[in-house]
Amino acid sequence: MLFSFDFWSINLKQVIMKNYVPIILLLLMALSSKAQVTINGTVTDKSSNPIVGANVYLEGTYDGASTDESGKFSFETTEEGTQTLVISMLTYEPHYEMGDVSYFKDISIKMVEAVNSLTGVTLTAGTFEAGDNSKVSVLKPLDIVTTAGAAGDFVAALQTLPGTSTINEDGRLFVRGGAAGETQVFIDGLRVFQPFNATANNIPTRGRFSPFLFKGITFSTGGYSAEYGQALSSVLLLSTTDVPDQEKTDIQVMSVGGGLGHTEIWGNQSLSFNTQYINLSPYEALIPSTQGIRWNSPYESISGEAVYRNKGDRGIFKFYTGFNHANLDIEQEDINFEEFVRFRLKNNNLYFNSSYKHFLENDWSLNMGASISWDTNDITLLDNLVDVKETASHVKFKVKKTFSNRFNLSFGTELFNVDFKESFIAQDGFEFDSDFNDQLFAGFVESDVFFSNNFAMKLGARIENTSVIDEFTISPRLSLAYKSSENGQFSLAYGDFYQNPLNEVLRYDQSLESEKTSHYIFNYQYLKNGKTFRAEAYYKDYDNLVKFDTELPQFDSQFNNLGNGYAAGLDIFWRDNKSINNLDYWISYSYLNTERDFRNFRERATPNFAPEHSFSLVTKYWVDKLKSQVGLSYNFGSGRPYDNPNTEAFLAEKTKAFNNISFNWAYLIDQQKILYFSVNNVLGFNNINNYQYANTPNVNGVFDRQAIRPAADSFFFVGFFWTLSTDKKSNQLDNL
């Protein structure tokens, strides 16, 4: 049997060798006869420097090679016809060459650097960001509310940034020579029509909103995005928190009132609210105001805010509401009256804001939202009665498409509606009603183009049509940024900006035009190892400013748009939180050269709200042994112009310089309990905001005057803040 098996095995091998070897040889000959093509070339960057280690291959095959130290590559392939040659390298955009393989000889490939969102250039001209997730932030939310002298008001903290002027008797934002009414505030992209609390003349106001509910702030001092309009000087963008990290309760007991906040989370839904009651009566009883005022009923307010959030797989819905009721009764000294002038105010403000963001397929996103506000003021001045009602709304729709990491496009439309009514009843029985209604339609389009990691552009335009003055405007916007080194970059920005005349004017005259300004900005920024340096030069050209022939706008004033002006200056910012352990500080300086011919000015001059030099120093130091954060800030403003009717020159004299040193101390009793103390103007500088002159001269032909000073030189604050949270670690230090 063994012999038989070997016999048949030998015969089988002979059959295979005899019949199949010729076929195999024919197949091998056929394969070897198929032409082999050599593919070679050189891969470099845009500066013709060789790229080492790039992968070069034919798509869908195993044929390929890597570039050598000279950027050269070479490999053979048996593929025929039209093929795709792929060149890939980390930090560069993939490159594709398509054609017949016979063409891929001695080819030169220039690779384009991929845009890196972490290390690439950013568009920063005219913009300060305060957010935990932004790589260009110069401040964090913690910084905004722990600044000495700010007393938890983010607007007061922003006044320590360059480009702003501290107008001590007002409290609102004055930016680069612009009046307070030239700055607009938005929450989640939607307009806030009355962002500041109502107050009396020469008594500073505060922002209506608590930092408790916001994750970040973007403050643009000029050249801002085409998405926003109706602001000649700047915009302040507030973003509510998307998803809270935990449930917690915050309790506040203060020398001027109390507050309560809470966050509740269930699944993908959450609700946060914050309420506060303020009453200055106990403070006034202890430390009465001394500078020409008497309180019949000191400022009292009750306010509340809430944010509801519902986060889905591809979208998030947020609903924000805020309510504020305030009243005061004050008597103020006036040089034109023998007795003090009495002023009474009751203000009610209700604001709703809802927004929805949805992420669609193929890198499309959709944003839509609406806001509405009701604001009423019941005012008694002497025995004159003024009743003011404003209902305003904003509806917005925005679409964004990201085509690549080099190009995105956004566009949208929005509608504003303002219904304003005022009734005036004089003590002698004279009555006058004024009102207006405006529907303003706007559309915008804007794109971000990243040519490389070192060069980017933002290009946009905005159109507006307003019914109250029946006018159509077009506003181009352009920003450029060039990264000059690993840590430094230059930016340029230009834009036209329009704004309707203020309500105090439109209620009497609707035949006017929009006021206009053009911004030109040049910026340099350097960021490295906890250090930030910014220098920004700007020029603003004003046109069509509103003028009138009375001291204040009134029913018999003659209005026109013949006003004009300019503002030019230099802003410098430096921050360092690394050089000295536990010390964080920033320095701001602004130089402002501005003149205007507007309102009742008889010629072009520098207005009272525009000091030539402004300086701020903010320091924060953590003392570990005392479990305390100590803060000290210093604000300086050069003398502000005022008009002396005893001389022929207009707005030619200046007040003495403004100085303010403020101090705060936050002591951690334990991880969740804080005792907080602060004092504003700790050295009691005798600041003068302006002068009021008599309407008629005295017997010697001289107009008497009195200084307009703060109600009190200093302000003290003491508070106890207690947080109850699931992690037992959170506290309110970031809200103080």
Quote the beta fraction: over 45%
> Approximately how much helix is present in the residues?
under 10%
First and last CA, distance: 102 Å
- Mean pLDDT across the residues is 87
If you compute it from the alpha carbons, what radius of gyration comes out, rounded to the nearest whole angstrom? 34 Å
Total number of helices: 6
Unreliable runs, pLDDT <50, ≥5 residues? 1-13, 24-33, 130-137
Largest sheet: 22 strands, antiparallel, barrel
What characteristic shape results from the CA principal axes?
A: globular
Structural class: mainly beta
Number of strands: 40
What do you see in this structure?
The chain is mainly β and 736 residues long. 7% of the residues lie in helices and 54% in strands. The strands form seven sheets. It has a 22-stranded antiparallel β-barrel. A five-stranded mixed beta sheet has the order 8-13-14-11-12. A four-stranded antiparallel beta sheet has the order 3-2-5-6, with no helix packed on it. Strand 36 and strand 37 form a beta hairpin. The chain is globular and about 110 Å long. Residues 1-13, 24-33 and 130-137 have low confidence and may be disordered.
Condensed summary:
The protein is 7% helix and 54% strand. The chain is built from six helices and 40 strands.
Write the topology of this structure.
Layout: H1 2-19, H2 21-33, E1 37-44, E2 55-58, E3 64-66, E4 72-77, E5 82-88, E6 95-100, E7 107-110, E8 127-131, H3 141-145, H4 154-158, E9 164-165, E10 174-175, E11 183-187, E12 190-192, E13 214-220, E14 234-240, E15 248-254, E16 257-266, E17 269-279, H5 281-286, E18 293-311, E19 315-332, E20 341-359, E21 364-381, E22 384-404, E23 407-425, E24 431-450, E25 455-466, E26 471-483, E27 488-499, H6 503-506, E28 515-528, E29 531-548, E30 559-576, E31 583-597, E32 613-623, E33 628-637, E34 641-642, E35 653-654, E36 658-670, E37 673-680, E38 690-693, E39 705-708, E40 715-725
Parallel strand pairs: 1-7, 11-14
Antiparallel strand pairs: 1-4, 2-3, 2-5, 5-6, 8-13, 9-10, 11-12, 13-14, 15-16, 15-40, 16-17, 17-18, 18-19, 19-20, 20-21, 21-22, 22-23, 23-24, 24-25, 25-26, 26-27, 27-28, 28-29, 29-30, 30-31, 31-32, 32-33, 33-36, 34-35, 36-37, 37-40, 38-39
